[in-house]
Amino acid sequence: xxxxxxxxxxxxxxxxxxxxxxxxxxxxxxxxxxxxxxxxxxxxxxxxxxxxxxxxxxxxxxxxxxxxxxxxxxxxxxxxxxxxxxxxxxxxxxxxxxxxxxxxxxxxxxxxxxxxxxxxxxxxxxxxxxxxxxxxxxxxxxxxxxxxxxxxxxxxxxxxxxxxxxxxxxxxxxxxxxxxxxxxxxxxxxxxxxxxxxxxxxxxxxxxxxxxxxxxxxxxxxxxxxxxxxxxxxxxxxxxxxxxxxxxxxxxxxxxxxxxxxxxxxxxxxxxxxxxxxxxxxxxxxxxxxxxxxxxxxxxxxxxxxxxxxxxxxxxxxxxxxxxxxxxxxxxxxxxxxxxxxxxxxxxxxxxxxxxxxxxxxxxxxxxxxxxxxxxxxxxxxxxxxxxxxxxxxxxxxxxxxxxxxxxxxxxxxxxxxxxxxxxxxxxxxxxxxxxxxxxxxxxxxxxxxxxxxxxxxxxxxxxxxxxxxxxxxxxxxxxxxxxxxxxxxxxxxxxxxxxx
Amino acid sequence: xxxxxxxxxxxxxxxxxxxxxxxxxxxxxxxxxxxxxxxxxxxxxxxxxxxxxxxxxxxxxxxxxxxxxxxxxxxxxxxxxxxxxxxxxxxxxxxxxxxxxxxxxxxxxxxxxxxxxxxxxxxxxxxxxxxxxxxxxxxxxxxxxxxxxxxxxxxxxxxxxxxxxxxxxxxxxxx
Lengths: 501, 175
Description:
heterodimer; A: alpha+beta; Rossmann fold; Dna Ligase, domain 1; D-amino Acid Aminotransferase, Chain A, domain 1; 4 domains; eight-stranded antiparallel sheet; 24 strands; B: mainly beta; CATH 2.40.50.100; four-stranded antiparallel sheet; 2 helices; 16 strands; about 55% strand
């Protein structure tokens, strides 16, 4: 093994996840101690800790390319694992590592760059015959041109403001007669909102499912896929729950989408682990969205159903080894669900709720895997994401997995911050989630309530409120109530007096 | 004295959604479901903190704040706000409410410290329940603060590009 010591250019659960595999492979790890989280749990998994607490710069060290390279060189790390987020998809960082004779555990800078640029990625997909949501080449001049393009790509289409965002200047057109009116509205709205009336059109994919394929490629040109993950449960493009496989795919569609995913990866000579994202419509047409050139948050569900350690594969590929698996070796067994337990308040629109974890206990059943970067006493700090833990549950099939997830959710115990647990408790009981007919529009369209509580739970909470009131206000033998502003009165007596009027 | 017997000694917990739970005095560590009484215990230990033990299961609880007869609690990761009323105070409240009508204002407060990015409504605007009124940035995420009621915006305290503390008043809406 060329790789002797890995600098983990990340924190939290993913740093721990990477170090766990490195330890099994007898590779040393270096973690960076920061001023923001000097007592973070990930530090205890490392062989070497680099103390960076004196650096009080506003930019996190995990985004500071020069600093990270210097730390790697200083600590004798000959490889860097970027994890996800931060610099994981920064081509310049990957190149800088290579320039300093440090192995970057990830794809080539060229592949990162090409997939990160929407225009290049779109053109690559086009050249390779990968289905995509078709659209106009640039902006359109008038409604006649819009109609011509819509006839070609098929209705419904969506008119989007070229300089837009946030839903303004956006209109869905379902048939030809609506085009003139909608084009004018969208264009005017765009001008009003963004000072630019230019718009373009795209095929509108209604209520799609988010399906992504896990790819593994080596430096010898071998590329395979490890099946799909469904990540349709998302809110504002933030994934909340992922599962593998997807109930929406059969073997035939899996094969077709999988081979397309491999093809697009091969177009950039992809190596390491990567993910090709598609939208799948209700008629099972799929459209290439983008490729993520990193290990993903939701990688554990794929590990559970394939039995393959993706971090180990990343390290071996970076080490120059050929993939030991061929496509036909990959078997998808059972079902896996991952719930992202975040410090968020589902009763206030998923607002982040940073704070100190006062107590924490996770299920230890054999069907449960927990990837976490916090323990009792840890803080969820505002500088980073709000993740507390990933609860990964397996089952024989989807039904079994759902049953296990429901059980596991009831065993998670977190105090100190509000969490997304009540959301998942609702989700596993929702008929549309249970029958698999949910789409990316599920949270916005199908939910009236974001959380679950049994009827008796509110009753118990009410009991507690009354208990507190009784303790504060009543002494057991008399029933006089002190209203805290000094007035003592017997409410039953008063009540009687009133009723006598 | 006959009157006394008819008038059972009770306390009521009224939820923020106006659901009413009644408890007979003297206060018992039991809750009746159907025809059976189930024992409830409030406990605390070093590892788990405060919890409620009910039907052999432990539920995490936390008292967020209490003000006079108003209690804000966290039970099994969900927050609840109750006002505890005696039969007398409940009746007085009903009388007061009927005199005032229902038009007490809803005060939308900042759920967390952060920065106001945008105020999406103007004074006098009519908003629907669930409509975003303010965008608040916290932890690098933009959060839409939604109106809990349908009504008219009577006052706006939030200003774009200013920082707010938790519980700062943002918008006042009259249902």
